[in-house]
Specification:
The protein is α/β, with parallel strands linked by helices. The chain has a single domain, classed as Ribonuclease Z/Hydroxyacylglutathione hydrolase-like (Metallo-beta-lactamase, Chain A, 4-Layer Sandwich). It is built from five helices and 14 strands. It has a seven-stranded mixed beta sheet with strand order 1-2-3-4-5-6-7. β5 (about 70), α1 and β6 (about 95) form a beta-alpha-beta unit. The longest helix is centred in the last third of the chain and has 11 residues, at about 195-205. The N and C termini lie close together (about 5 Å). The model is unreliable at about 1-25 (pLDDT under 50). This is MBL fold metallo-hydrolase. Pfam families: Lactamase_B_3 (PF13483). One of its GO terms (molecular function) is hydrolase activity. Keywords: Hydrolase.
């Protein structure tokens, strides 16, 4: 899938007439800037959230320092201590599951809010709730066990953002309500198929859906097929495809 390197939203009129944005998405006042794969910078209400920041500090140099950092799990594409050490995080609150907190140096303890599945914390006018993320398929359950990691629902000014983390189409995802913007993963063997992701999205009906975390091993997930399934299942759901792999040709 070809992408446009631009800071302005562009509409690609494909056979499905999907809205494809390739640098920044502005949805329900959530400004989403992909960094790569699972890492993103999200701005809302004058605050900056880093989601699963990994990689070189140079990837974040054009963004404001974070007020909130949300980390979903222990794996290297979600948590990398060397990245946190290299960023300006001294004023940030860091929201993590216990498994991540256990790996962080003691120097970060004053900044950490440990959040379990179903628990909530309010910071800077944002209410962050941990949502389960785990595998359902027997052959994949070794990747993500229930209770270790968090997806997140983030609410601010009556708008709700869902970040799936690494998960399959679990009942807790399907039961979500009133989601304005959802970032949903889809990659094998670690998370789920595009069919499972689409089926779950069609059940919880976010206003806007954004596929992310779709590079698998060895194949990249077919996000165009995902888009087609959403369009066919519920054309009222707005689909936004960002460039989550700016250094790759997909």
């Amino acid at each position: 899938m070809k992408t446009f390197k631009t800071l302005e939203a562009k509409e690609l009129i494909l056979s499905l007439q999907l809205l494809i944005l390739t640098a920044i998405c502005q949805a329900q006042d959530w400004k989403v800037s992909p960094v790569e794969h699972a890492s993103a910078v999200i701005e809302k209400g004058g605050y900056t959230l880093y989601i699963d920041p990994v990689g070189s500090a140079s990837l974040y140099r054009d963004f404001p320092a974070p007020d909130l950092i949300l980390i979903t799990d222990i794996h290297g594409d979600h948590y990398r201590q060397s990245t946190l050490d290299s960023l300006k995080t001294s004023k940030a609150k860091i929201i993590v599951p216990q498994a991540v907190a256990d790996r962080m140096p003691a120097a970060f303890t004053p900044q950490i809010d440990v959040l379990g599945n179903g628990e909530s914390r309010s910071r800077f006018g944002f209410t962050i709730t941990g949502v389960p993320m785990y595998n359902l398929r027997a052959e994949a359950q070794r990747f993500h066990t229930k209770g270790r990691g968090n997806g997140y629902v983030v609410e601010h000014d009556n708008s709700r953002l869902y970040i799936s983390g690494d998960t399959e189409d679990i009942p807790e995802m399907r039961a979500l309500e009133n989601i304005d913007l959802a970032l949903v993963c889809m990659n094998l063997p670690y998370t789920m198929t595009v069919e499972s992701a689409a089926d779950a999205v069609l059940e919880f009906k976010p206003k806007t859906i954004m596929p992310y975390h779709y590079r698998g091993n060895p194949n990249v997930s077919d996000v165009q097929k995902f888009a087609r399934l959403i369009k066919e299942g519920n054309p009222k759901i707005r689909l936004v495809q960002l460039d989550w792999y700016p250094r790759a040709d997909y």
